[in-house]
Design goal:
The structure is a homodimer.
Chain A (H helix, E strand, L loop, with lengths): L7 H8 L3 H8 L7 H14 L5 H8 L4 E6 L5 H16 L3 E6 L4 H13 L4 E5 L8 H4 L6 E4 L11 E5 L1 H14 L5 E6 L3 H17 L9 E4 L8 H14 L4 E4 L2 H14 L8 E6 L3 H4 L5 E4 L2 H16 L7 E3 L2 E3 L8
Parallel strand pairs in A: 1-2, 1-3, 3-4, 4-5, 5-11, 6-7, 6-8, 8-9, 9-10
Antiparallel strand pairs in A: 10-12
Chain lengths: ~350, ~350
């Protein structure tokens, strides 16, 4: 795998013709006779020559490649979103390259910038932290870009976006608990996904208000943003006990991984789910169906989110007018919730 | 996000100087006076000019980017391997781009070729299907490449590789079951990962031979390769019943996801794990610790695999001599196995 790249010069030397002749022959230029063209192409094949994709794309200005920035490939949520992106991209003959941001705005901007400099045709960014303060850093990105479930309220207006209705999802989750007779309902959130956490917390609080249920400060536990990259499972494990102590009979968790952590904590504390405590997650990742009890959750249509975002990008590439989209999540009732 | 890219020509026109002068000024060429250089760079900044990464990399022949081909980002196994790759890449100032093969050799070759044409500095390929039959298609790839857990026995000799010792891992799994007193031990495998499945099956059979235990054809169930992309969980769910019917008291599963499926099948059939049936997985993904009972498994050092492969690639890039590496997995005893 370490042999030197064959250049046009190498072929020219071997063929005893000029660099220009080889270059023209390989590009099927009519300036070169068909016979010589064939001979040179044959020689190039024998020598193992591969055209330089970068030089080619400089000429055509098209790379037929889409860049996707995700937080991490360890997140099963984005795995399914990317599957949806790939389905649409494949059917349009586009390659997909992925890069990770690890929920860090500097890494995110570096990833976008790297894609831009490699001249991808379009960029998709999941869970973005970019806000109007970063306009200068990314203002020059002239590549069509669509944001998926962005985490900033003050996103630059020029951005296109697809997002899930976090507020609606939270309402569905908490209304489900209310309908089961729960009156002491907690919320276990994460501070490092500021916008979606805020919207889910608002949805939670609105339903409690509408149902005239008590709202107690100690029934809300938010893992504050820090630099330790605490996993969501650990967040759920560490923070569930304080909600139980505060007297809740049910908890709406920010997402399924947090709920998995909460469930592990319950097992350790000898708390039966759903008999002693009901748990609701958010996302609808496959894992939620494998655990015991299987998790009641608010399902985001992950494949659909990826497909819609990719289609929006294709429309932008064809200079069509696009409108930002908000998709609706829905409740999946399983074994982790029960009547109070 | 749709404004036109600013070119060197645009800057030259505005500045009233030649294209060459702008180009030289932006590259800090000493042929241009420091004052003019500064003026042109200032103008370029004001106009929102971004240097073309592709054109730059044509000059330097370096992109400071590594391409990684994985089967799918939905696989938690590769998520952790990629985390290891990124740790080492980041500390060396390299960007990582990912692409997916979906266990299809044509998609794999297309992904490698795409990386090669974009002039990445090095390539890592996980779960490769490439064998000596593909030498012509990828023979021209002159970019240093390292394969991780390749699935072909007749890999081209020029390839560098890091792999887990599948045979040893299988032996550890089955020896664990033998040590618990099991004498009817089944194997639940997958046909689409030919090499590692074969090595794990061999390890299984060798231990049974050594322990003078019965080897029954019906105690081995292999999901044959097909084009339906059946998930490993579904494979475990569908194939566990036939092993139970054949009378096994324990099953060594190809990997953790297959074991999760087997566990779901047991719940449906009213079979208690580990009281009625012991299950062992392979990989050591986080999920295995979240299910009930938590899964006994053979842990692959996933982070380490990624780190070693990336370090090998860095060594290749520095023209150091490298040797292929085989890493050892180890047993993690948890709740899914018990004394017969």
């Amino acid at each position: 795998m370490s042999k030197r790249k064959i250049s046009i010069e190498d072929i020219a030397r071997k063929a005893g013709v000029s660099h220009t002749t080889v270059s023209r022959a390989l590009r099927d230029s009519p300036l070169i006779s068909p016979k010589v063209r064939e001979e040179i192409k044959q020689l190039a094949r024998e020598m193992g020559y591969v055209p330089n994709g970068i030089a080619q794309s400089l000429q055509t200005q098209k790379t037929n490649t889409i860049g996707v920035v995700v937080t991490s490939i360890a997140d099963p949520f984005f795995a399914e979103v990317v599957e949806g992106i790939e389905q649409i991209a494949r059917s349009s003959g586009l390659s997909v390259l992925l890069s990770t941001s690890h929920r860090n705005v500097e890494q995110e901007i570096a990833a976008i910038d790297n894609f831009y400099r490699r001249r991808v045709d379009g960029i998709l960014v999941a869970d973005s932290r970019i806000n109007t303060n970063h306009t200068q850093q990314i203002g020059q990105i002239a590549t069509p870009t669509v944001f998926i479930n962005s985490q900033t309220a003050n996103q630059p207006e020029s951005f296109h976006s697809v997002r899930i209705d976090d507020y609606l999802g939270a309402r569905l989750a908490v209304q489900h608990l209310v309908s089961l007779g729960h009156t002491s309902i907690g919320y276990l959130g994460v501070g490092d996904r500021s916008l979606s956490n805020q919207l889910r917390q608002e949805g939670y609080q609105t339903v409690l208000s509408e149902a005239n249920l008590p709202q107690i400060d100690d029934w809300i536990a938010i893992r504050e943003e820090d630099n330790t990259r605490t996993s969501d499972v650990v967040t759920g494990q560490q923070m569930l006990p304080q909600l139980v102590k505060a007297g809740v009979t049910s908890v709406f968790c920010y997402n399924d991984m947090v709920a998995v952590g909460a469930l592990l904590a319950c097992k350790k504390l000898g708390i039966s789910v759903p008999q002693d405590l009901s748990l609701v997650g958010f996302d609808g990742i496959a894992l939620g169906g494998y655990i015991t009890p299987p998790l009641t959750t608010i399902r985001q249509p992950m494949l659909e989110i990826g497909r819609v975002a990719m289609q929006m990008l294709l429309d932008l590439l064809q200079d069509k007018t696009v409108e930002n989209r908000v998709l609706s999540p829905y409740l999946i009732e399983r074994g982790s919730t029960a009547r109070k």
